[in-house]
Amino acid sequence: MHVKMHLRNAGRIKRALISSGLVLSINFGFQGDVFGEPEVKQTAKGVVTEVSHLEGDPGQCLPDVFSGRIVKRNFDERTGISLTGITLEYHDGTREFINVKIPDDLNMALFGTVAQGLQILSKVGREMKGSGFRCGAAGRFLILDSIK
Asked: Which end of the chain is more exposed for a tag (fewer CB within 10 A), N or C?
């Protein structure tokens, strides 16, 4: 229980340190190959439970984990199908925008599966857990890598 509480508060602590201008580099237990092709996990009945490995090589960005309630989502203006961003409300009431990018080089079958999985998992009002990368000055630009 103590470990779970510590990890649950890790994202909040890290956000506070980053917003104060301090640089923090901690591995928060990301599993697997973060540079692999996107992956969609489903139950035996085909219900999407997780989309992961969206970002690829994050460069100089810092890994982060987060959880909260989805209060808004944005889709690309051309088709209205590809998710481009999520506004997440943390349990303390603060909100943050999370950028979402589906890699351009996917075959159409995988692209469709990933896009549909993101649509399902980003439903407004849904509680989510995710991981991503903080980039830019003081880590203010957050990019989604996985959602469940």
From this structure: N
Q: Which residues contact 36 (CB under 8 A, 6 or more apart)?
A: 53
Per-residue pLDDT of the chain (148 residues; tens, 9 = 90+): 333 334 444 455 555 544 444 443 333 344 444 457 899 999 999 889 999 999 877 788 999 999 999 999 999 999 898 999 999 999 999 999 999 999 888 999 999 999 999 999 999 999 999 999 999 887 889 999 999 9
pTM listed for this prediction: 0.74
Each domain of the chain, given as residue ranges in start order, spans: 2-147
Q: Name the class of domain 2-147.
A: mainly beta
The residue written with tokens 């079958």 in the block is: 109
Give the helix/strand (H/E) hosting 121: helix 108-121
* Contact in structure between 73 and 130 (CB atoms under 8 Å): no
